[in-house]
Amino acid sequence: MRTLGKGPALAVLLVDVLKGVAAILLARWLYPWLEMPEGRVPWTVCLCGLAVLLGHSRSVWLGFTGGKSAATGLGVLLALSWPVGVGAAAVFALVLALARIVSLGTSPSSTSCRSRCPTACWSSPAASTSSRSTAPT
After folding, report:
1. What is the pLDDT of residue 60?
2. Cβ neighbours of residue 108 under 8 Å, at least 6 residues apart?
3. Residue 59: phi, psi to the nearest 5?
4. Residue 23 phi/psi, 5° resolution?
């Protein structure tokens, strides 16, 4: 944004978010039999999300350097569990509005989604039922 302006910065942001979304959607399309009960995301799809993040931050074409993966990570979160992605984006926007520093907004937004991801994305149904009381009434 500092070099080319807001227009190209928004285009790059959109492409980076779509890159994360496309990786997850492609993985789900290629592996439809991996869908788990209750809409849980299989671990192989999550690995595809990790692969797109690593590919963005450590690009072979750029000598294993690259971007910070914040926008690509948002795309992965939106595709895995949109409520978690929207929550992380809201925290980022709030911190950005208060501090006016982009890099300061990424840490709280990633920390905020840690508490929501295990329950929304890939916790097992057995883990969610083990916390309930099984004592007879």
Report:
1. 84
2. 91, 92, 95
3. -70, 135
4. -65, -45
Which pLDDT value is given to residue 38?
A: 61
Q: Tell me if 79 sits within 8 A of 20, measured CB to CB.
A: yes
Whether the Cβ atoms of residue 71 and residue 20 lie closer than 8 Å to each other: yes
Which ranges of the chain have pLDDT less than 50? 122-137
DSSP state of 4: T
Residue type, 120: A
**Integer Cα distance of 78 and 72 in angstroms:** 10
Distance between CA atoms of residues 33 and 19, nearest Å? 23
The total of other beta-carbon atoms located within 10 Å of residue 56's CB is 22
pTM (2 decimals)? 0.74
Cα(49)–Cα(24) distance, rounded to whole angstroms?
Answer: 6
